[in-house]
Amino acid sequence: MQSLAHISLVVRDYDEAIRFYVDVLGFTLVADEYQPEQDKRWVVVRPDGGGCSIVLGRAVDDAQAAFIGNQAGGRVILFLQTDDFWRDYEAYRARGVAFEREPVKQPYGTVAVFKDLYGNLWDLIEFADA
Known about the structure:
Layout: E1 6-11, H1 14-24, E2 28-35, E3 40-46, E4 53-58, H2 62-65, E5 76-81, H3 85-94, E6 99-106, E7 109-115, E8 121-127
Parallel strand pairs: 1-4, 5-8
Antiparallel strand pairs: 2-3, 3-4, 6-7, 7-8
């Protein structure tokens, strides 16, 4: 059996990324551990509902920094599933999250596209009952 444990996002700064994912999106900070041998931090966040977590990796050079905010070439990179679309949509708007595409009801569920603090695109989605 296999499962996806983590995905990685390149960020500009650990602390500003933690503030966004924890304070704005309501994620849980799973780990924030300094790794002196590599002079970096192991920073992991995860939605409160569980599932795959995100490793926040600070860009260490210009080549990595070039991908901050555009890790999927302008496409949606992550899909955040919710059990109450309108609760989360309104909460995110109140916290200043920028929505790129307004909510729409599709046959598969209700979805809107938002930007994270760097510009990566996310779907906020509540799937229709199966």
